[in-house]
Amino acid sequence: MKISFWSIGKANEPYIKEGVEEFTKRISRYFKADWNIIPVPKNAATLSETDLKKKEGEIILDWLHKDDYLVVLDERGKQISSEGLSAFIQSRANESTKHLIFLIGGAYGIDEAVMKRADYKWSLSQLVFPHQLVRLILAEQVYRACTILRNEKYHHS
Q1: In this structure, what CATH number is given to the domain that contains residue 58?
Q2: What range does the domain containing 25 cover?
Q3: Cα atoms in the Cβ-side hemisphere of radius 13 Å centred on 75
Q4: Contacts 24+ apart (CB under 8 A), 47-55
Q5: Roughly what angle, to the nearest 10 degrees, separates helices 131-149 and 82-94?
Q6: Among 42-56, 61-75, 94-108, the least confident range
Q7: Mean pLDDT of all residues in the chain?
Q8: Residue 156 pLDDT more than 70?
Q9: What gap in Å lies between CA 148 and CA 142, rounded to an integer?
Q10: How far apart (Å, rounded) are the C-alpha atoms in residues 3 and 79?
Q11: How many domains does the chain contain in total?
């Protein structure tokens, strides 16, 4: 199974980039893993929030393949523990999911069409975090879940 992280926005700031790269490298010991930073549409400043979300949604839906398993990060999604995330990832692998995608939306969230296409809606927290920080938290949590799967020492419960 391949795990991809998709995020709308700018490239990682240096203080985020190093951590994201490190955790992605660690995840790659368990699953193929990569990042796709989806650039904000060129005319974003001239678009309404609704139109911007719609345009971002069109890009995402265009990139998705029929069999991709899409997890959207959304504050209204289900909250799960690190152990729960580990079980979730194991379930996807057991179901022979070829491509598991975690999506971090744009500044105004995720378009309704993408939400309807999502296979799972996950909330990292009820707190609101900067998008770049969410990238780092997400990468770390997926790595943590992988170590739980292998019963390795990284996670202490």
Answers
A1: 3.40.1280.10
A2: 2-149
A3: 10
A4: 49/108, 52/106, 52/107, 52/108, 53/105, 53/106, 53/108, 53/109, 53/110, 53/111, 54/111, 54/113
A5: 70
A6: 42-56
A7: 94
A8: no
A9: 10
A10: 20
A11: 1
> Has residue 157 been placed in a domain?
no
Structure tokens at 1: 């199974």
Is residue 155 in some structural domain? no
> pLDDT tens digits, residue range 71-92?
999 989 999 999 999 999 999 9
Q: Six-digit token pair at 39?
A: 């650039």
User: pTM score, two decimals?
Assistant: 0.94
In the block, residue with structure tokens 């069999």? 67
pLDDT digits (tens, 9 = 90+) for 107-129: 889 999 999 999 999 999 988 88
Inside any domain, residue 156: no
Q: What is the DSSP letter of 40?
A: P
